[in-house]
Design goal:
single chain, 157 residues, 7 strands
């Protein structure tokens, strides 16, 4: 993985698209998280959020972050995006990582699901496989902004 984008560049990308420090959209975020909880339970692979998931989604929900120089790729912090059977795919990746996972968003255009694990790491579940975005939100957002990701298999237990 290349070094992350400069923090100033990521901050400008976020702020240009409506984010600001302290932003918290609790009602909308909680509604979308609950939708995901219910959907995963219906699929037979229940997913459960934790505080860090809620903090992340509440900070970025309902905003679009277009990926520079990529055409139609846009990051959206919306855990309610998914496809039939995705909860099983998420559960399988969680088992490989040895950590709980919960969706915190997706990348429109590619339709990959952005996941947060119990250690605070971010992963990207794409139709071509799972990828690692970073050890924390700052690294993950930089990766989403630049399109730079590593294969997730280096993080399997």
């Amino acid at each position: 993985m290349r070094p992350p984008a400069p923090a100033e560049d990521v901050d400008l990308w976020l702020r240009t698209n409506g984010w600001f420090p302290g932003r918290e959209e609790t009602a909308e975020a909680d509604r979308r998280v609950q939708w995901r909880v219910d959907s995963s339970a219906r699929q037979g692979f229940p997913l459960r959020p934790w505080d860090e998931v809620l903090r992340f989604v509440r900070s970025y929900v309902s905003l679009d972050f277009p990926v520079p120089k990529s055409g139609d790729r846009v990051f959206r912090a919306d855990p309610s995006f998914g496809y039939e059977g995705d909860a099983e795919d998420i559960a399988e990746l969680a088992e490989l990582l040895g950590q709980d996972l919960f969706p915190v968003g997706y990348e429109a255009g590619e339709n990959g699901i952005v996941l947060l694990d119990g250690l605070g790491r971010f992963f990207y579940l794409h139709h071509t496989g799972p990828y690692y975005l970073g050890a924390n939100a700052a690294q993950a957002l930089s990766s989403l902004m630049t399109g730079d990701q590593d294969d997730a298999d280096d993080y399997y237990v």
